[in-house]
Design a protein that fits this description.
With 218 residues, the protein is an all-alpha fold. Helix content is 79%, strand content 0%. It is globular.
Length: 218
C-alpha cells in the first residue's frame, strides 16, 4: 500500500486538463510552425504556444506528484519549469507588443525593456514568492498590454486575425481572474484550476487561428 500511495496522482481533474492543454498547445504550435509563408509573426506565435504547452506539461507534473506544493524542496524544483515557461510566454508577448506598437523603438531598447522585465519576474518568482498569484501579477499586465495592442491593430487594420488574438487574450485574462477567485464547477472533481485550463484551451485555439490570419507584412 505504501508503494502504491507513493505513486498516487493527486488532483486528477487538474492534471488531465493540464495534459490536454499541453498536447493542444504543442500540436497548434507545430501546425503554425510548419505552415507555408511563416515569418516573424508566426515564429512569435510558435514560441508563445510552445511555452504555454511547456507550462501546462510541467504544471501537470507538479499537481500530480507534489501535493505539498512549493513547501518542499522537491516541489519547488518541480515548480521552477512552470515559472520559467510562463516567463518565456510573457517576455515573448512583451517583445511582440512593443515591436507592433512602437516600431520606431530601436531593437536594443526593446530588448533591454524585455530583459529587465524578465529579470524582475524571475527574481521575484524564484527568490521571494513562487506562488501562482505572483506569476499572475507579472503576467497579467503584459496580457493587458498585448490585448490593447491587438485590439488597436484589429480596429486599425480591420484584421480578423488580430481580432481573434484580442479575443484570445481577453479570455485568458478572464480565466486568470476566475482562477484567482477560485471559481469552480465542483470543488473536488473540477476545481478552479481545471476551469482555468479549459478556458485557456479555448484561448489557444483562437490564438492559433489569429496568428494564422495576421499577414506577415503586419
Amino acid at each position: 500500500m505504501s508503494g502504491a500511495s507513493a505513486f498516487a496522482i493527486h488532483d486528477p481533474d487538474v492534471v488531465l486538463t493540464d495534459l490536454a492543454l499541453a498536447l493542444l498547445g504543442a500540436w497548434l504550435g507545430w501546425r503554425l510552425g510548419t505552415a507555408p509563408g511563416r515569418g516573424p509573426m508566426a515564429r512569435s506565435g510558435v514560441l508563445v504556444m510552445g511555452a504555454l504547452a511547456s507550462a501546462a506539461f510541467w504544471g501537470a507534473t507538479f499537481h500530480a506528484f507534489f501535493p505539498a506544493g512549493t513547501r518542499t524542496a522537491s516541489g519547488f524544483m518541480a515548480w521552477i519549469p512552470v515559472v520559467l515557461s510562463i516567463l518565456v510566454v510573457a517576455s515573448a508577448l512583451l517583445e511582440l507588443g512593443l515591436r507592433v506598437a512602437a516600431p520606431r523603438l530601436p531593437a536594443t531598447g526593446r530588448h533591454a525593456i524585455v530583459a529587465t522585465y524578465a529579470a524582475a519576474f524571475a527574481a521575484v518568482a524564484l527568490l521571494i514568492d513562487a506562488s501562482f498569484a505572483t506569476i499572475v501579477r507579472f503576467y497579467a499586465p503584459v496580457l493587458v498590454l498585448f490585448l490593447i495592442v491587438a485590439a488597436g491593430q484589429a480596429v486599425r487594420a480591420r484584421s480578423a486575425g488580430w481580432t481573434l488574438i484580442a479575443v484570445s487574450f481577453a479570455i485568458s485574462l478572464a480565466a486568470a481572474a476566475l482562477q484567482q477567485a477560485r471559481v469552480s464547477i465542483h470543488p473536488e472533481h473540477f476545481d478552479h484550476n481545471a476551469v482555468y485550463h479549459v478556458l485557456q484551451g479555448l484561448a489557444l485555439v483562437l490564438l492559433y487561428r489569429g496568428f494564422r490570419g495576421v499577414p506577415e507584412t503586419a
